[in-house]
Amino acid sequence: MKIKEILDQKSGGIFSINLSKSMLDAAKEMYEKRIGALLVQSDTGEYVGILTDRDVLYFFAQQVGDAEKVNVSEMMTKNFFIEVLDSTAEHAESIMTENRVRHLPVVDEGSVIGIISIGDLVKAKLQETAVEAKSLFDYISA
After folding, report:
1. What is the b/e burial string over 7-25, where b = at least 16 CB atoms within 10 angstroms of the residue's CB?
2. Spatial distance between the Cα atoms of 113 and 116, rounded to a whole number of angstroms
3. Angle 19-37-60 (CA atoms, 0-180°, nearest 5)?
4. What letters, b where the CB count within 10 A reaches 16 and e where it falls short, cover 107-132?
5. In whole angstroms, what is the distance from residue 35 CA to residue 19 CA?
6. For every residue of the chain, which 3-state class applies, written as one string?
7. What would the 3-class secondary structure string for 37-69 be?
8. Nearest-angstrom CA–CA distance, 6 and 40
9. Cβ neighbours of residue 9 under 8 Å, at least 6 residues apart?
10. Strands 47-52, 37-41: parallel, antiparallel or unpaired by DSSP?
11. What is the pLDDT along the chain (142 residues), one digit of tens a residue?
């Protein structure tokens, strides 16, 4: 299955936050939207990092500082992995597994067009397996 197919099945868009926002703002945004990652944007709108639920957890567990005063830029992951639109789910799964990440921004022609999670990949794989199983069952039953 291609990454494009997985993105087409998702609802919603790209969720982001400005790098000068507080960690508390980020945690609230992620909670309200029920998401596990925010792309971090500079003041010019460029994506400069990713902040995941894991980053938020580490922040609070390590008691780095006041959540209202520490900026997202201090806790975000700056060197994040990306996936391209015409790649496969297997390739994305490989990147996530090898690098122990659960979210990948998806890029097409140099622009971020979405983000996929390990949950999205699992869901797609389950759907694909169900279709294959039904096809095999129909073939055997015929």
Report:
1. beeeeeeeebbbbebbbbb
2. 10
3. 75
4. beeeebebbbbbebbeebeeeeeeee
5. 18
6. CEHHHHHHHCCCCCCEEECCCEHHHHHHHHHHHCCCEEEEECCCCCEEEEEEHHHHHHHHHHCCCCCCCCEHHHHCECCCCCEECCCEHHHHHHHHHHHCCCEEEEEECCEEEEEEEHHHHHHHHHHHHHHHHHHHHHHHHC
7. EEEEECCCCCEEEEEEHHHHHHHHHHCCCCCCC
8. 22
9. 120, 123, 124
10. antiparallel
11. 899 999 998 877 899 999 999 999 999 999 999 999 999 999 999 999 999 999 999 998 987 789 999 999 999 999 899 999 899 999 999 999 999 999 999 999 989 999 999 999 999 888 888 777 877 777 788 7
pLDDT at residue 118, rounded to an integer? 94
- CA-based radius of gyration for the chain: 18
φ, ψ of residue 38 to 5 degrees: the values are -125, 135
Q: Hey, what are 128's tokens?
A: 């694909």
